[in-house]
Amino acid sequence: YEIASRLSYFLWDSMPDEILFEAAAAGELQTPEQVESQARRLLEDDRARDMVVHFHEQLLETDMVLGISPARRVYGPSFGLAPEPPLDTTGDEVWPSVLSPIRRSLQAETQLFIERTVFDGAGTLRALLTDNHGYVSAATQELYGDSVTVLPGPTVSVTHGYIAASGGQTQTITLYPAEFSSEERAGLLTLPSVLAIGAYPVHPAPILRGKRILERLICQELGTPPPSAEAGAPPDSELANATNRERTEIATSPPECVGCHTTLNPPGFAFEHYDSMGRYRTEDNDLPVDASGTFGVLGGEVFTFEDGIELSHQLSESARVHDCYALRWTRYATGVHIDIDAPEIAPLLSGFRSKDKVRELLIAIATSELFRYRPLGVTP
Fold first, then answer.
1. Dihedral pair phi/psi, residue 32, rounded to 5°
2. 280, 273 in Cβ contact below 8 A?
3. Distance from the CA of 217 to the CA of which of 54, 83, 247, 268 falls in 20 to 30 A?
4. What are the residues facing 287 on neighbouring strands?
5. pLDDT tens digit string along 201-210?
């Protein structure tokens, strides 16, 4: 019964069903083969799709997209609004009413991309980091511009509630399958949701974007920044007289900053082609965007790239990224903080590097001794 519960809460985020309880009662969850049979059955259920989406939302913190607040004075005109609301305040509720469906659409687009890539697409980490297919709605069309091609196929409708003019409202968003330019979009890291949560109201935040990649995808912990770090960040003002990259480089150039920012800045700079709402751009403050860079990570890998597309493809082939992803899943499944170099996790990491199949990784975790047995001295 412990195996039944552990398996169900791993793959469904819910209690076992009748079939799983019957298997437990019959003693049919004792061998790896028996567990594998049930795990494969559970992965065919829609609840497994929800769980996989939930894992990735935790991994990249994309649910934070519901709280993004890009500045109206900068982005409002792109949606037909004046930079500032009328002085009589009658237009104060307009910008939030524009942002609400954008936020919800970005969340849904991310969820659908993850679900369809893992279960209906290639099913690999490489595809999650490089595929240029996804979904778009009327609310987010402006963010993708002319580079998006709506494809034939079933649409998806999402209904959400929001507050407008101090009253509750509901709205239904229709999402269309789409293909994006391979020169502008490549997988998770170029989704507007991921880019928007790594930004301030006016400018992108390359340090936050770089930190998310290093910590979440490469498993390289950076430690706590010094107390003065936030105060030293470049002002988030539309009156800046240089590019975002140039101002960030200046702010992180002091000797006490360089040690960390030599590694931290480049993966963030790779995505300078995207503004605070995740729109692709070629210029910043009327100057050409420079998204090139190089950085090394633990394990000895070095990434050298011209932009975020190239970096995303390099990350998709990285052994360290594959190991980190498999480690994150193993911690999620077991609830145990296992180190990436722990010998007991080595078979799971090497297996995923060779196969790169997300669902097969989940099966491998479920049938492993790490999952099926509790280490000596560890209480439940």
1. -55, -35
2. yes
3. 247
4. 284
5. 999 999 999 9
